[in-house]
Amino acid sequence: MSFFGTFVLARSDRLLVDEETVLGFGYQHEHLYELGDGWQLLETRGISDPQDFAAASERFVAATGVGVLALYVNAADCLGVYGRTGEGWTTSFHLPVDQVPCPYWHNPQPVSRTTEAVAADLEQWARAVGLTAVPEQVRAIAAYESSFWGYQLPLELLPALGLPEAGEPSPTVIDLGESPWCAIIGFSGLARQALNRKACRASCDTMDCELYGPEREWERAAIALEADIWAARHRRNTDTTTLRERAERLLEAGRNDKNAQVYRQRT
Fold first, then answer.
1. What is the pLDDT of residue 155?
2. Beta-ladder partners of 6
3. CA angle, corner 189, sides to 183 and 193, nearest 5?
4. How distant, in Å, are the alpha carbons of 23, 49, 193, 216, 261 from that of 204?
5. What CA–CA distance (Å, rounded) separates 91 from 260?
6. C-beta of residue 190 within 8 angstroms of C-beta of residue 222
7. Does residue 61 contact residue 47 with C-beta atoms inside 8 Å?
8. pLDDT value, residue 266
9. Model confidence over 121-132: pLDDT tens digits?
10. What span, in angstroms and rounded, lies between the C-alpha atoms of 163 and 156?
11. Angle, helices 135-142/153-160, rounded to nearest 10 degrees
């Protein structure tokens, strides 16, 4: 299974999606696992992943005062991991440990580590944030070998660190597979089309720049609306009426642009 995404593990007295600095790891918050006692695991993505985990973690800890562990799953067969405690201690490593340098992009690029060193760092991070790791399970995580099931490793890490196993993700108030959201979100949605056009105009080295012409009002609206949809979907008291009205206006504008495509399902 080809999977790309970031998992953020931290403890908070409010939803991680409401922590502004979590946006440093990504804004497309797909799944949120609430583990109890404030502990949460958030699956998220950005536009140009992976984000700078060192900078994002520093900002997150400065704002919240708590430790954070971020894992980027790359094509489901390797992971880049970065951890930071509230006291400023950091760790960075790659799984599998023997695949460094890695042909995939990680940020920061991890250096070569031993399985023993990675296991020791995971246990140290757990102690610093008030958890009691299970050494044999941590060693099994550190000894991970490349497979198509790498996207499950962040979930398997939870009990190794002394946390409960993840259950079902928390319910959301917006189903991205339904209309009108599906026409805006996704690799071919209106928001991504708008972002691609923006990048194209910035580079101005392709014929598409002339094809698209100057920036349209609906493109700016699409980029803003996508961010608002992702931000709102995990908030249980969200009123989606205004978002839906904005989405319907956006779809109409997209249909009126001969170079835009309005899809009927999430892509």
1. 96
2. 44, 72
3. 140
4. 29, 23, 16, 16, 22
5. 44
6. yes
7. no
8. 74
9. 999 999 999 999
10. 10
11. 150
On the 0-12 / 13-18 / 19+ scale of CB atoms within 10 A, 20 is exposed
| Joined tokens for residue 43 | 């699956």
Q: What is the 3-state secondary structure (H, E, C) of 57-78?
A: HHHHHHHHCCCEEEEEEECCCE
- Which residue type sits at 168? E
- Predicted TM-score (pTM) of the model is 0.91
Instruction: Compute the residue count for the chain.
Output: 267
Please write the tens of the pLDDT for every residue from 133-183: 999 999 999 999 876 677 899 999 999 999 999 999 999 999 999 999 999
CB distance 246 to 211 below 8 Å: no
List, for residues 39-70, the tens digit of each pLDDT value: 999 999 998 889 999 999 999 999 999 999 99
> Which residue(s) pair with 71 in the sheet?
7, 81
